[in-house]
Amino acid sequence: MAVTKKTYQAYFTILKEELVPALGCTEPIAIAYASAKAREILGDFPEQIIIECSGNIIKNARSVVVPNTGNLTGIEASAITGAVAGDSSKGLEVIENVNEEQIKQVASLLEAKLCKVKLIENDANLHIIVKMINGDQSSLVELIHTHTNISRLEKNGEVLLEKSFNKEDFNSALADRSVLNIADILEFAQTVDLTDLKDMLEQQINYNLTIAEEGLKNQYGVNVGQMILDCYGDDVKSKMKAYAAAGSDARMCGCSLPVMTTSGSGNQGMTASLPTIVYAKDKGLTEDEMYRALILASLVTIHQKTFIGRLSAYCGAVSAACGSGAALTYMKGGTLEQIENTITNTLANIAGIVCDGAKASCAAKIASSLDAAIMGHYLAMRGVAFDEKCGMVQSTIEQTIEAYGRLGREGMKQTDIEVLNIMLEK
To answer: GO molecular function, one example (predicted)?
Structure first.
């Protein structure tokens, strides 16, 4: 049954909203973006920067390398780089152009302890407030729920912009997601006019393949992607895992190449897209077939994240691997039921992998999640799936996705707190 015109337009809007380019890990880049905006409002360079962040922002920005900084890490480095060299008009590519002199300036300001970092304790997992002070002048930028969603701007205490968002509803800054379901996602992927999505999909392919190839060629982190090809062989299954892992190797360890994100995450964007691209190219699928598989993978990922939230203690590679598994089943001629079973089999296996921040080991979690998704695919193609007698699996795919989303959103809240506490105790 064809999707309605309203649903069709909603899916189109969701893809445009979620598949966006970013340079570097999105949490430190969101800090850099807010900092660049605050400096632009202030008009002068600040004498002091105060950064208030939710726990999940601290967790994800603490250990990852900030691109174009000479391998600096952390919240303070992100904020200072945004203030020194950021251009907020570039969105999540805000620190695309940083010269050598600016890198030295950032390092010097870090030594001078220009920044103070504070924890925001509220119900929003993605929340950033950047305050800048220069003499009697001040500015403030507040982001909530998504990485570039500005909810408040101030200069010298005067409110320039204010948008109200429910702090407990992480989807309140996004287009309506209630229309998402696996059956309609598949129908949309099969029937959508690709004309208006082609440029975005080509950008996804080019950006994500380029950074994966960089990760396979050069030294980043522990080079999980290279290890897979060296030790597991170079068949298509190994390549699917290796390319996604290599992209993460590079991105988590300071590579300055951009990626196309999904659900606010470059790692999820690469996990959802690169296995699909690798398989399609290896098997000689047409461009249209690859595009449609990419649409399916992205929307399946987004659908799950709608229940979990952008940031949580639940590793997003699991959701994105489900998207890749679904796309693999689709590319191999699987039915709707087999696509649904691929997702169920993957969730029943690895749901609940803990997110302990953005860092080099994300590449290994991506590879492990994709291995489970490939297993889930093969089980589904053999006509078998875990049923409602198995743990949290429900009687329908939509109930199953919602149940595992509840695990990530509600069940792992205390896990999130303990993960951050353990990290901060080091």
So the answer is: L-cysteine desulfhydrase activity
| Structural domain containing residue 378 | 180-425
Q: How many domains does the chain have?
A: 2
Task: Let me know: does 383 contact 329? Beta carbons within 8 Å.
Answer: no
Q: Are residues 155 and 185 in the same domain?
A: no
Tens-place pLDDT, residues 339-366 = 999 999 999 999 999 999 999 999 999 9
Task: Give the other-Cβ count within 10 Å of 156's Cβ.
Answer: 11
Residue 172, in any domain of the structure: no
**Domain shared by 152 and 200, yes or no:** no
Mean pLDDT of 376-380: 99
Domain shared by 197 and 110, yes or no = no
Q: Is 160 helix (H, G, I), strand (E, B) or coil?
A: strand
Residues 115 and 186 in one domain: no
pTM of the entire predicted model: 0.92
pLDDT at residue number 170: 54
What string of H, E and C letters represents the secondary structure of the chain? CCCCHHHHHHHHHHHHHHCCEEECCHHHHHHHHHHHHHHHHHCCCCCEEEEEEEHHHHHHHCCCECCCCCCCECHHHHHHHHHHHCCHHHHHHCCCCCCHHHHHHHHHHHHCCCEEEEEECCCCCCEEEEEEEECCEEEEEEEECCCCCEEEEEECCEEEEECCCCCCCCCCCCCCCCCCCHHHHHHHHHHCCHHHCHHHHHHHHHHHHHHHHHHHHCCCCCCHHHHHHHHHCCCHHHHHHHHHHHHHHHHHCCCCCEEECECCEHHHHHHHHHHHHHHHHHCCCCHHHHHHHHHHHHHHHHHHHHHHCCCCCECHHHHHHHHHHHHHHHHCCCCHHHHHHHHHHHHHHHCCCECCCCCCCHHHHHHHHHHHHHHHHHHHHCCCCCCCCCCCCCCCHHHHHHHHHHHHHHHCHHHHHHHHHHHHHC
| CATH number of residue 146's parent domain | 3.30.1330
The residue from 130, 162, 194 where one domain ends is: 162
Is 167 inside a domain boundary?
A: no
If asked whether residues 211 and 135 sit together in one domain, one would say no
3-state secondary structure of 201: helix
Separation of alpha carbons 420 and 418, rounded Å: 5
Last residue of a domain, one of 162, 197, 225: 162
In a domain, 406, yes or no: yes
Statement to judge: residues 275 and 419 lie in one domain: yes
Whole-angstrom Cα distance, residue 383 to residue 336? 12
In a domain, 302, yes or no: yes
